[in-house]
Design brief:
By secondary structure, this protein is of the alpha+beta class. Helices cover about 15% and strands about 30% of the residues. It has a 7-stranded mixed sheet with strand order 11-10-9-19-20-21-22, with helices on one face. The protein has a 7-stranded mixed sheet with strand order 12-13-14-15-17-16-18. Strands 3, 4, 6, 7 and 8 form a 5-stranded antiparallel sheet that branches. It binds fe (iii) ion and calcium ion.
Length: about 450
């Protein structure tokens, strides 16, 4: 059989004592045969895995075998437990005579640790829009953990202005085999594979993993629920997440705690949503109670959608209903808690922003109750945006940059530092890494350092 490790390896969901290891077998990743996703025959394949403390697999070796099943798209999710906290590990797989690349992962620190955490935030990677050079640079940083805040794939197909073609894939994904093909196309990218192999990931989804701007159960039709179920299953099959979908649902909101420094509350702004609620009552209760009792310095919301108020001059106010501006009461309930160390990360808008969260966005003199950092996109094109005009109209917003990139962050007991990394072009490979802004918070308000605007 041909090498089945064409989609790379990944790890995720770091806990102080364990991680998930992931791979998905695909001998022919671009196959469009609905009966053979990834070109794999419809039978189980035995996969062996190894994990060790060193890259040559000589120290503290652990190993086992697991079946890659056709019903899960020949993906494997290995839960490794009993590991040491705050420690690097290396892992690899073997199957059908082939061997995977080696991945590096890292457990979360001990709950009592006050060691700084280095993390990256990425989002929005439309394949046709360009190369994932930003991921190559992110991989070189080897952060402790990578958060992905959505639009990992796009369900539609770009017709014009394509930098690189999807190939023989269907126009829009709606069935399981089509979502599987779309993930396989994206995952053949070597820079994306490098980013997964460099650090454990904790992903959440936005809309394009299913359908542009969908909410909850969509139109409530059986057809939409089938489509959503297929998309959620393909998401699970292609991410190193701990939980499997059940009955068409996939539990996504969760927290990942890094010692006494940071509690990352990863939100799901899609599955439980309807016209009146962004999170749904159960997730909102979970979030509000955790925010209050969380015993850490930084209480971090990791989620896709622009959180602060953003008035765009000349814009129809209805346009932004897909952001938190469409759910101001729910946002106000979070901000009214006035918990110390509140930080929100978001994406979705394809430009980079940062700002302060106000107790009353209409009153620039009101208390600052948190900060927000918005990642632009790995490759997805931005809308035409007059950044300076929006900054002038929204005094709580402090930073704008229109380039592709990701966020490189360090949280410590004293401060949270966020570097806006960027590349000048994605229509060809090889763009050098730039830092276009570096912002620091010590708990109230934002300070800009080393800003170089274009
Ligand atoms: Fe996007
Ligand atoms: Ca989006």
């Amino acid at each position: 059989m041909a090498n089945p490790f064409t989609l790379g390896v990944a790890s995720g969901e770091p806990l102080p004592d364990g991680v998930m290891l992931w791979t998905r077998l695909a001998v022919d990743p671009l196959s469009t045969d609905p009966k053979r996703p990834g070109g794999m025959a419809p039978r189980a394949v035995e996969v062996s895995w190894q994990l060790a403390e060193d890259e040559r697999f000589t120290q503290g070796l652990r190993q086992g075998t697991i079946q890659a099943l056709p019903v899960w798209g020949h993906s494997v999710h290995v839960r490794v437990a009993g590991l040491r906290a705050g420690t690097d590990y290396f892992y690899r797989f073997r199957a059908s005579g082939g061997q995977s690349p080696v991945g590096r992962t890292r457990t979360a620190p001990d709950p009592a640790s006050s060691r700084p955490v280095r993390f990256a935030v990425a989002n929005c990677q439309r394949y046709e829009h360009g190369y994932y050079t930003a991921y190559r640079h992110l991989a070189d940083e080897r952060p402790d953990v990578v958060f992905h805040v959505g639009d990992y794939i796009y369900e539609s197909r770009q017709a014009a202005g394509v930098v690189r073609a999807l190939g023989p894939l269907p126009g829009e994904t709606s069935r399981l085999h089509e979502y599987r093909q779309r993930y396989a196309r994206y995952k053949t990218d070597p820079d994306l594979q490098a980013a997964h192999a460099a650090a454990p990931w904790v992903p959440t989804w936005d809309d394009h993993e299913v359908l542009d701007n969908y909410r909850g159960k969509g139109d409530g039709s059986a057809a939409f629920l089938r489509r959503r179920g297929a998309a959620y299953q393909a998401y699970y099959e292609n991410q190193p997440v701990r939980v499997r979908p059940e009955d068409g649902n996939l539990q996504m909101y969760r927290r990942r705690t890094y010692g006494t420094v940071a509690d990352f509350m990863v939100l799901d702004v899609r599955q439980h949503r309807d016209v009146t609620t962004m999170l749904g009552p159960t997730q909102e209760q979970w979030l509000l109670s955790r925010l209050v009792i969380s015993p850490v310095k930084w209480r971090v919301l990791m989620q896709p959608l622009f959180f602060a108020r953003r008035v765009v001059p000349g814009d129809n106010p209805g346009v932004r209903r897909d952001s938190w501006d469409g759910h101001p009461a729910e946002r106000a309930r979070i901000l009214a808690l006035n918990v110390p160390g509140l930080v929100v990360f978001s994406g979705d808008v394809h430009n980079a922003w940062a700002g302060e969260l106000k107790s009353d966005f209409a009153d620039p003199g009101s208390a600052t109750v948190g900060v927000e950092f918005v990642g632009s996109s790995i490759s997805s094109r931005p809308p035409e945006t007059d950044g300076p005009a929006v900054l002038a109209r929204n005094p709580h917003l402090k930073f704008f940059d229109p380039r592709r990139g990701y966020l490189s962050c360090t949280a410590s007991a004293e401060e949270l530092r966020v570097a806006f990394r960027a590349v000048d072009f994605v229509d060809r490979r090889g763009a050098p890494l730039l830092t276009v802004g570096e912002l620091v918070t010590k708990g109230s308000g934002l300070t800009l350092e080393n800003t170089s605007s274009k």
